[in-house]
Amino acid sequence: MNLQQSLANVLRALRSEIGPQLSSPRASATLGSVVNVLTHLLVNATASDSGRCAPATASRDHAAPRDGEQTSIYRSLIDEASVPYGHFGGKGNYARLQARVEAILDSNDPQISQEVANLIAWEKSAIDRTVLEVTKLLEPMSTHCELSASSELSRLRQQALETYLRTKYPCHPSLHVCGFAPLPGGRSKSTALVQLAGCQELPPEFILRQDAALNATGGPSVIGEFALLRELHRLGMKVAQPFTLERSPAVLGAPFVLMEKLRGGVASGLLQPPYSRRVALSLAGELAKLHSIPLSDNQAVTADHATFDRAAKLLELERFGEPWREPYQPPCLAVRVALKWLRDNIDLAVQGTPALIHGDPLFHNVLAAGDELTGLLDWEFAKVGYPAEDLGWIRAAVEGRLPWAEFMDAYRATGGPNLSREQLDYYAVWEALRLTSMLARSNRLAASGSTQDIEYTCVAFHETYIARQWLSASVARVAGA
Q: Which CATH superfamily is domain 152-260 in?
């Protein structure tokens, strides 16, 4: 039995024999990540055996590995993740094309901009094909998820939380935490559903949101989120009401906040279009409401949240480029083009009036009950910025469900500011590059062996390709391809 057959048999067994027996949401989410990683291993192994992929090539934005660097299974998998380029001659051909793109960009010759557009279109077709192939392989598993018995770690956290709450609410001596279930998802925060009895000051079910020990996305602490959520709830935004904040890590190992449990479930999978058109249009209205809040009226927004001047934007853009000087990232022509195009057009980044923005309003951070939007989650990236930043961040996901013009009509009809087409296109590129850079940092953790967390390893594959698909599409739009 060859490698491909062995991996295919393992994947079939995981889906048909293991998946249906799992009752824990976290176990099912972990199995999904394992299947994701094994699927990509299967695809890359097949590509390597067919001669489509060559060893990694050094370049200015994709350095050769340094002697003595730590190696791991994660590093090996990521180094082979060049499937898109295998369809068009492998990494050797890619290295020649990348050198040509760099020469074109460095020359600043407008006469040859069409050649860049053609190369970006070439890469986009390769990435589109890969995403299609891998998505077909990652079929949903048949699993039945219920709240299962707590693990030993969850049991200890449940006991510590109960002790804390009895101290905080001494008037309720019969207070008892009768359920504590970690919820899947989230990489910079951990989340659990808590079930409570004997306390009239808190609901019988609420959410515990806590800083994670490992935060690859760069999101701030829940300490900063608490005041903002309280203010947004007061202003009528569809957010969970925060009940209490604990700053000390002594209770559960990190700061945490207790907040309202909202109705519904997430409106899509990670980096996926929304399940409902009506929910997408409702999000347009909710973002319009957010972007219309006068900054002077929002006491929760401080100078620490402000990153809207030209110098700050250039510094942020420089950070986007940092991961591409690492040896762990599969190559991407669109990254090189996007970095230069965004620098050359930086004035578009600071066009218009700053506002409070969410920073990550993708649909896996949106709760919905059927076609009704019930809440907007995960405000860790909220800041003073430009409305086009939020819109650029979700544009590719929206376009997977409905025309962008329809979404923007709903946004303006609900009071959203008028934004230029040029700035909307600019931030579609900016935010796709930001997402790609964030995923690249997660890849770095997996590749270096800094984490054994299967969720980070999972991100190194399917979600990375989706982010590059969004980036290539956004760059192709402005490049005229």
A: Phosphorylase Kinase; domain 1 (3.30.200.20)
